[in-house]
Amino acid sequence: GSAVGEIRAKLGALKLPKTVDDVVEEALFEEPYCVAVRRGHPLSRKATVTVRDLLTVDWVLPGAGSQRRRAFDQLFSNEARRPTSCIDATTVSAQLAILESSDRVTLLTPLELASEPRLSGLVALPFAIPVSRSADGLTMRSDWRPSPFQADVLERLRDDIRRRGLALCSKRSRPVEAVELRHAS
């Protein structure tokens, strides 16, 4: 059995360091970031948004070290200057409050925009971000075996990802034994 409070599996961004050998990851889906703004934002009226446009607006971002912050830094890495006004907001609630009441912008994923009711007042700008993002999936202890209930929850999660058309075409790691991973064809 597991010790009290011991984590055996988690769902989220994959970031397995190569030096860890008692953990496996199963990539489930990938999606890029998008630049999100409140409905009616001046940039939302443009047919195409450029990096130069994004240099002129104020941003609200999570703190340094987060994957989104690294993506923001990478987005402007080839520019001579960077946006001059950035608010660090560590909670999603704070970011949303700032976005809904200002012309600031942030990085989100299309799935977050589509599935999170608190984000319904936000839209994605017509801008393809040339920054890669880690796949999302399951990170599990290599010796973990899910209970029948846990296996059912995981399979329902995989089914939902396939139904939404987000499933990756190739497996990047070994799935947990006793839980079959089927991919959309």
Notes on the protein architecture:
The chain has 185 residues and is an alpha+beta fold. The protein is 24% helix and 19% strand. It has 5 helices and 8 strands. It has helices at residues 51-55, 67-75, 92-100, 110-115, 148-163, and strands at residues 9-13, 23-29, 34-38, 59-61, 86-88, 106-108, 122-124, 136-141. Helix 2 links the parallel strand 4 (59-61) and strand 5 (86-88). The two termini are 37 Å apart.
Poorly predicted segments:
170-185
Order of helices and strands: EEEHEHEHEHEEH
How many extended strands?
8
Q: Could you estimate the helical fraction of the residues in percent? A: 10-25%
Radius of gyration: 19 Å
Overall SS class: alpha+beta
The total of helices stands at: 5
Nearest-integer average pLDDT: 80
Largest beta-sheet details: 3 strands, antiparallel
Strand order of the largest sheet: 1-8-2
Indicate the overall shape.
Answer: globular
Strand content: 15-25%
What is the CA–CA distance across the termini?
A: 37 Å
Q: How do you describe this structure in short?
A:
This protein has 185 residues and is of the alpha+beta class.
Key descriptive features of the protein:
185 residues, three-stranded antiparallel β-sheet, 19% strand, globular
Helix and strand layout, with pairings?
Blueprint: E1 9-13, E2 23-29, E3 34-38, H1 51-55, E4 59-61, H2 67-75, E5 86-88, H3 92-100, E6 106-108, H4 110-115, E7 122-124, E8 136-141, H5 148-163
Parallel strand pairs: 4-5
Antiparallel strand pairs: 1-8, 2-8, 3-6, 3-7
